Amino acid sequence: MNHSPLALANDAIVLLAQGIMRQYTKVLNQEIVRQDDSLSLELYKAMCKLGRLYIEEGKPDRAACVHAVLERARDPNYSWGLEVFERDDFPFRQARLIESELRVPTADCAEIAHSSGAFGEDNVIERRLYEQLLEATEKVGRRRKHKAYTAVRELLGRRSLIGERQLIDYLNENDLTPLQGIINEAFFDSVPEIWLIDSLAYSCEYCGTLLRRNATGKIQCPLRQCEGYEPSKVKEPKKIDPNDDRLLIAKPQILTYWTGPGIDELKIFDAAKQRGLDAKLYPESDLCDIAINDRQIGIDVKSYRDPVCLASKLNRGIGGLSNYRRRIIAVSDLLIKDTACSGNK
Ligand SMILES: [Zn+2]
Predict the structure, then answer these.
(1) Fewer CB within 10 Å, N- or C-terminus of the chain?
(2) How far is the CA of 276 from the centre of ligand 1 (A)?
(3) Same domain, 142 and 239
(4) CA dist., res. 290 & res. 282, Å (int)
(5) Residues 276, 319: one domain?
(6) Where in the sequence is the domain holding 213, given as residue range(s)?
(7) In this structure, are 263 and 166 located in the same domain?
(8) Residue 249 is inside which H or E element, if any?
(9) Helix, strand, coil percentages, rounded to 5, for the chain
(10) Of 230, 254, 278, which one is at a domain's C-terminal end?
(11) Does position 162 have pLDDT exceeding 80, yes or no?
(12) Do β-strands 326-330 and 297-301 pair in parallel, antiparallel, or remain unpaired?
């Protein structure tokens, strides 16, 4: 329900390419490939995703053994036996990841591995979502695509729970009607009945997304960047009858990568606007999160829980932020408090 097979196949291959690059470094260091904890996380995640593809296609899981998976990536005559890999719209249809005779990663493999900008599952998914949206906004034409990009990201940030008619209105108001199909399909799901509480959808009073009951039965916001993540802070949720307008909720990966981080981004943007500053949200299709006075100030909000991850990401480059005269990396107080707490444990 959450992933289309194509998206899953895409992530599986990028992670597999990353896993192969990591494994190759280990082999160069004379380490032996073993199916245990020493397996790179990328390779492990790739195997999980491949396994899921086999199961979803009703086939026996052929991705459970790392040696078999690597062998398959190497043998030019071997087919994965997955229908989704044969689809015309699967971008890695032709890709071969390991040189069959030389047993080194192919140039394709290195290219695919680095296509996400950084290694790891999070980066792979985030990159794919970004590219999906860029491709979609091309439909409105070169002159308007940046504006469309901002409007869609703002929608996913502010209105991650929305009625179908409200969504159509938003798209009309923002001249995004050509994107309706793709937005509906790629970014939203219908609210499943099991997430309703007494047949109603509860919407978070802080961020507006759909509240859920957690494992202990308490109602909370699923976004960790939101105040409502703390069940004791949930006070007056808005209750919506799904029979009035079919309710849509942003897909889990959108909530994780865009809506959650968007909470702080929108707060900064709104505060800048309130002070009468010339602020732009996600300018030029995401050069930074918030720009003030065109290229004078660029702000990126980072919500990495792990400071080491953030440092390593920044060491690789600051991306579009480099285009701004003054560059600001913002980290929310809540996150700092959280990280400090878990660090003390
Ligand atoms: Zn919330």
Answers:
(1) C
(2) 27
(3) yes
(4) 6
(5) yes
(6) 127-254
(7) no
(8) strand 247-250
(9) 50, 10, 35
(10) 254
(11) yes
(12) parallel
Model confidence at 76: pLDDT above 90: no
**Per the structure, how many domains does the chain have?**
3
**Pair of tokens at residue 8:** 């899953």
The pLDDT score that the predictor gives to residue 344 is: 37
pLDDT in tens, 229-260: 999 999 999 999 998 899 999 988 899 889 99
3-state secondary structure of 45: helix
CA–CA dist 200, 247 (Å, integer): 11
- Please check whether residue 148 lies inside any domain of the structure: yes
Instruction: State the angle between helix axes of 66-74 and 41-56 in degrees (0 to 180), rounded to the nearest 10.
Output: 80
Tell how far the Cα of 250 is from the centroid of ligand 1, in angstroms: 13
Question: What order do you get walking across the sheet with 188-190 strand by strand?
Answer: 161-163, 247-250, 188-190
Measured in Å, residue 225 CA sits from the centre of ligand 1 at: 8
Residue 53 within a domain: yes
Determine the pLDDT at residue 58: 95
Phi, psi (rounded to 5 degrees) for 97: -95, -30
pLDDT for residue 44 is more than 90: yes
> Are residues 193 and 262 located together in one domain of the fold?
no
| Ligand 1 centroid from CA 330, angstroms | 20
pLDDT at 293 over 80: yes
